[in-house]
Write a structure and sequence with these properties.
Elements: H1 3-43, H2 73-78, E1 79-81, E2 121-123, E3 126-130, E4 135-140, E5 146-151, E6 161-163, E7 166-171, E8 176-181, E9 187-191, E10 199-201, E11 206-209, E12 214-217
Length: about 220
């Protein structure tokens, strides 16, 4: 055997090791590039990061209570709690003038004879209460006695709304919204639309919330 042949055989393992290392490096580079491309394709159609806007001078305090709304003394005596959550934004915060705190005693109890799913509204010394069999009550706020009641023809899906001298309520079964004069209890408004919160207002117009439609109304 020639000396040259023996030298080549000694070099062959070293060449094989270098070749394997090179191949492994190429595979790693291709794998990393493929993963990066796949991630880019996956995230290309995703929504952009949500921008949270706030004040640059005032720190946000998550436990801070909402500011109680301000209302005139006349408004407090007439429409005390006009809609679900007190305001259209559902703050559930009563005016600062409502300085009520425990302990309390029971003044009266009224049985509605079926489920009360939604809270009442309070206006003009009346508590307007609805139950899921369609009965709508106007109770004396001081005594709890029924001043008048109506059958709206089906389950009432939400809290009534008081705007001006009218209380509005609705029923999905009849697909109607009705408005009753809070003093005379006569029906002064009726339309074939129904919603959870039947009516809202900006003081100039009324906005009827139907099941599928929103209807703007204004006085004639």
């Amino acid at each position: 055997m020639s000396p040259g042949y023996s030298h080549a055989r000694r070099l062959r393992p070293e060449l094989s090791l270098k070749r394997a290392s090179l191949i492994l490096a190429v595979v790693l580079v291709v794998g990393i590039a493929g993963a990066a491309a796949a991630y880019k394709l996956k995230t290309r159609g995703s929504a952009p990061t949500k921008v949270v806007r706030g004040s640059s001078t005032r720190e946000f305090v998550p436990t801070e209570a909402p500011t109680p709304p301000k209302r005139s003394s006349r408004a407090l005596q007439t429409i005390a709690w006009p809609t679900y959550g007190y305001t259209p934004t559902r703050t559930h915060v009563a005016p600062a003038d409502y300085d009520l705190r425990p302990p309390y005693h029971v003044l009266w109890t009224k049985r509605a004879h079926y489920y009360i799913e939604f809270p009442p509204v309070v206006a003009y010394g009346r508590v307007f209460l609805q139950q899921l069999h369609g009965r709508f009550f106007a109770l004396d706020a001081r005594t709890g006695k029924v001043r008048w009641q109506k059958d709206v023809g089906g389950p009432i899906p939400g809290t009534a709304v008081v705007i001006g001298n009218t209380v509005y309520t609705s029923s999905f079964k009849t697909q109607t919204t009705s408005g009753f004069d809070v003093h005379t209890h006569k029906r002064t408004f009726h339309i074939k639309q129904a919603g959870y919160t039947p009516m809202v207002s900006d003081g100039k117009r009324l906005y009827l919330v139907g099941y599928y439609d929103l209807i703007g109304l204004e006085p004639r």
